[in-house]
Amino acid sequence: MVDDIVVxxxxxxxxxxxxxxxxxxxxxxxxxxxxxxxxxxxYMSLKGCLRADLHDIIASDGKNYKGKVxxxxxxHWCNKPSCPICFKHGxxxxxxxxIEARLDEAGxxxxxxxxxxxxxxxxxxxxxxEALRVKAVxxxxxxxxxGGVLIxxxxxxxxRKHWYWSPHFHVLGYILGGYSRCRGCKKGCVGCDGFEARxxxxxxxxxxxxxxxxERKTVFGTAxxxxxxxxxxxxxxxxxxxxxxxxxxxxxxxxxxEYKRNVCPICEHDLGAIRYxxxxxxxxENLSNGKREFFADAVDELGFAMWVSCVGVKHG
Length: 316
Prior knowledge:
It contains 6 helices and 13 strands. It is of the alpha+beta class. The chain folds into 2 domains: 2-35 and 85-246, no CATH class; 43-75 and 271-309, no CATH class. A 5-stranded antiparallel beta sheet has the order 12-4-3-11-13, with no helix packed on it. A hairpin with a 2-residue loop joins β1 and β2 (27-29).
């Protein structure tokens, strides 16, 4: 059974990689390089949406933000995956947003996004990233994964508290015929042509362990988490951790709607520079607690605006 082999592979007695964080040859975990500059992670400004009149609706979290303005703190991010300060809340956020936007467009044609892991056979551990990627894409195609995004992971973390070299790819992509028939199936794969039957059959040929993980909550959340411990290649200035293939490749899928990060989560209007205009003797709990984003009262008890646009004109 393939599942039995997965357990064995995850516990291989391989020498631990150097250092506290994963490093092997020219490869290293993201966030394991040098800080780019003194501004990385520093608070820069406040932006927000003052259209409180448009916030009188039930938001996706089930709450109504009537009379509230949306406020977000902005920080300086260099957006380099190697930067130990910026990789998680700068680079990974931006990349996850781009992945979500592109897969949202692809989903209109190809259905439900699945989270898939393609593990490289041990015999191929010494191959270059480029060669590993070619083999992984081929292994995905023959199993019916028609396209998506590959996020490269060079390392796994085991119970002995160290990272070890074990290259694999996390994939957010689309399966021919879907995966719903296999999820929760207890009938086995005898005489079946579903994904689980195909991946077991192909494993005997190529040695790739390809699994579909549990149902994800959001594409953005899954992508962001996997980017947080992805791997990069040292010495390559623009190494692409996330790459597209198949029906989602840049050649086959043209996306005109790009990821817009600086918009209000309620009314989707662009955010503008704002400042706090409330009573200076009253400490706003959201600002003092350093929350990155929050909703706050638009006016005080006397009807005076608590937040105003920095540009001196009506926001929006």
